[in-house]
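Researcher: Good morning. I'm working through a list of sequences from a screen, and I'd like to move beyond sequence-only analysis. For each chain I'm collecting a predicted structure so we can compare shapes side by side. This is the next one on the list. No need for commentary yet; just the structure.
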Amino acid sequence: MTFEPPALSSPFRVLPLGKLDTYENGAAVVTVGAFPGDAPVGVSLVPEFRDFYEALNPSVVVPEAHGGSAQLLKDFAGEGLVKLLPAHPGLQDLDVVVTCVAPVTVKQVGSGSYVLDADGREFEVSELAFRMLPLLDGQRTLEEVAVDVRATVLADRAQRAAMEDIERDSGQSFDEMLAEEALLLIRELFDVGVGHFERQA
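Model: Good morning. Structure tokens for this chain:
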């Protein structure tokens, strides 16, 4: 299966899709389309392309891409290995399904943040991101997960008032915060190797 490579409209973000497996012989394969009933497709990556793929970070805005990087991103998008997002994505842009392939446990609770352990590797997330984590069931999209968290927060009078204060002080809407925290969360899951992301079935 191939996808129409999108135009690179700067600035943008890049979300890696699929599950990366690296073998003892150095081979690297990204499997995409791993939904029940779908036929998964494996795409082999040479070492430099694997490094490029592993370095992708959806929480960082890419000002622009030139030359080889731009072409590689277009090639990856054509193979379904990445999803290009606007620099300031809305919740509607988060139409990917997230699957955790290893348990994530709480190591430490801080002030508004959580230190988590995934397969022996620790990472830290915000309270909003932590609320999303148990909802990543491999079926709901990241947008649906964020909307569920939004509904839970706004249903509580005290939490709703606190969020309104944060919106006023930060100049960001609650939806913008949720989108940002969602991308930070899945970047951490990708980084520690326990999360992979697929297009909506």
